[in-house]
Amino acid sequence: MGNIKSIIAAAALLGMSGVVAAGPMTWQDSYSPNGGDIYMEAGTSSAYQSWTFDITNDGFNPGSDFVTDYVIGLNLYDDSNDNVWWQFWCTDCKSEYAYLDQPGLIGDRIFEVGGGGETASWSVAGLFSINLDGLLDVSLTATSGDFYFGGATLETSGISKDVPEPGTLALLGLGLAGLGAARRRQKS
Questions:
Q1: Which of 60, 64, 79, 174 is most buried, taking the most CB atoms under 10 A from its CB?
Q2: Could you give the count of Cα atoms lying within 13 Å of 78 in the half-sphere of its Cβ?
Q3: CB–CB of 128/68 below 8 Å?
């Protein structure tokens, strides 16, 4: 009768151990240019900037976690300088544009630089890249005019796979120890 009680107690402890589902998660990364804001001007060597977002720094585990959506935020603002070389002959050419390139063709965006934050959503190839290794390569090109680039943010959302808790693992260990003790008593 004592062996049956031991086995039932060990099975109860084993049954209480389990896995906690972390469920929906968000991961973020930001890029700030070294030395402050970057001046970008179309047609010059300062027209192009590239960087890599890395959400593994925020706890994303490639192969275990899964990103379902992301948004890239850009801080672009006008330098309020209308005296760039090409505007003296083209008085209607005061618009300044930036081109955001991310993996794949869908998801690339052209922005008219106005004075603040711009956003771009995901691309299929971008989602594949992030889920593969937690990294997303992005570039920004000044296609017309001149402006400042103050930085960028990546906000992702997705699902974190089931994660065992330390308390859960302790209960599992106690349950296994109880089963071992019950088995040892049964042999004696």
A1: 60
A2: 16
A3: no
Structure tokens at 6: 């031991």
**Which residue type is seen at 175?**
G
Q: Show the tokens assigned to 168.
A: 């859960």
Distance CA 182, CA 188 (A): 10
Backbone angles phi, psi at 93, to 5 degrees: -100, 40
pLDDT per position as a tens digit, 8-56:
665 665 555 555 556 789 999 999 988 889 999 999 999 999 999 999 9
Rounded Cα–Cα distance for residues 139 and 141 (Å): 7
Six-digit token string for 96: 């300044």
Query: Which helix (H) or strand (E) is 63 found in, with range?
Result: none
Which tokens hold the place of 4? 């049956």
Query: What are the pLDDT digits (tens) for 95-112?
Result: 889 999 999 878 889 988
Count Cβ atoms below 10 Å from residue 47 Cβ, excluding itself: 17
List the alpha helices (DSSP H) in the chain. Answer: 2-16, 124-133, 166-187
77 by DSSP, 3-state: which? strand
Closest CA to 102 of 131, 75, 72: 72
Burial (CB count <10 Å: 0-12, 13-18, 19+), residue 45: exposed
Euclidean distance between the first and the last CA atom of the chain, given in angstroms as a whole number: 15
**0.85 exceeded by the pTM?**
no
